Description:
- It comes from Candidatus Anaerotruncus excrementipullorum.
- The chain is α/β, with parallel strands linked by helices.
- It has a 6-stranded parallel β-sheet with strand order 2-9-1-10-11-12, with helices on both faces. It has a 6-stranded mixed β-sheet with strand order 15-13-16-18-26-25.
- The protein contains 15 helices and 26 strands.
- The model has no long low-confidence stretch (mean pLDDT 93).
Amino acid sequence: xxxxxxxxxxxxxxxxxxxxxxxxxxxxxxxxxxxxxxxxxxxxxxxxxxxxxxxxxxxxxxxxxxxxxxxxxxxxxxxxxxxxxxxxxxxxxxxxxxxxxxxxxxxxxxxxxxxxxxxxxxxxxxxxxxxxxxxxxxxxxxxxxxxxxxxxxxxxxxxxxxxxxxxxxxxxxxxxxxxxxxxxxxxxxxxxxxxxxxxxxxxxxxxxxxxxxxxxxxxxxxxxxxxxxxxxxxxxxxxxxxxxxxxxxxxxxxxxxxxxxxxxxxxxxxxxxxxxxxxxxxxxxxxxxxxxxxxxxxxxxxxxxxxxxxxxxxxxxxxxxxxxxxxxxxxxxxxxxxxxxxxxxxxxxxxxxxxxxxxxxxxxxxxxxxxxxxxxxxxxxxxxxxxxxxxxxxxxxxxxxxxxxxxxxxxxxxxxxxxxxxxxxxxxxxxxxxxxxxxxxxxxxxxxxxxxxxxxxxxxxxxxxxxxxxxxxxxxxxxxxxxxxxxxxxxxxxxxxx
Length: 498
């Protein structure tokens, strides 16, 4: 049975996911079979496993760091917000329904046996499990039904490393305050403190660390510097959604929809030297990009209404009318069609006109399509012709069925016969395939098309070997954390347990 250690944070975006990835990588480098585990994840970035099961992308990233294939056992509960007060609830990779926050809170206790069954199966396969908490363990209004923070640590008998984000300020107060709000049995589980995202001279921090240790009676096991590693982010707090890189040879604008999902689809484009990719949510931010992308969303009809109300729909239509390239993925592909119908109220009910840029119509259905798929682009006319015949691979996650009169892709879901997917109309392209740009051939085909349209040489861009680049980033993360963390103390905590 695996030994366990857990990373919890004083708040969301404290760096828990990256610290778990770093520990998974370090343990892997040290010769152990390590795996991540997060009992409950709330995120719109998800992934479909080889078995056709849905899980959070953060655990996929952590599994990659550990050198293993992702498994839904690593994330038994995934919540995908569809509104401010409700989420789609996914248990062991399968949709169990749509629930309000209050209903889910009432029913959480029923899910504990399934969480522990997944944990037990995973623990039987590995030497070390690195657990991740969610948000803060000091949410005193939620602790009675906790299954992801101290409740999970207690069930797994996992010692806890409590992490605070110094970059946002108030780290000493957040760490001391979190410890103050924990119950005595919860405080016993905390075996070490980590300061994360530090910029500056560690010597200046030392007096504060000593005072903190005296206050909370726990050792500070490391001060992790701010590290500009480039890994897949987890959720809507991602910095890449708000940062703006320097202008590039090619400018790509991704519409930041309110329920934006799977924005990790576009990370491979961002990693090409010469490409500037930015997320826009207001009309004044759009400018004149070389490509507009409508991404996936957990609420297609609601986000289409938002697009219409803030003027971005008209701007995208004008961009396309001028011959500007437009690409839609999943929900964004649905929006580009002529009409969306929801007769069963899967989303909002009723009908909505789409942007009318592709000859497709979508009808929502309660059954969710979840599958990995391979295929290739069909012969395309117009701007996207350089993609013709290019092989692709990725996965589908969607509730709708779309009828297209001008398919763009021949797609073969796992274990099924090939079928047409997507649509193309000169300078507009849409598909259901997430992870489309994980294949370098697709990145090259798209960028060649954009360069040709703009009248510049393809050689002005420098794509990276994505797999090699990812491995380099995991190694950089592990090296930085190993230098900054007292790994001897961490191994001691791991061996001692609770």
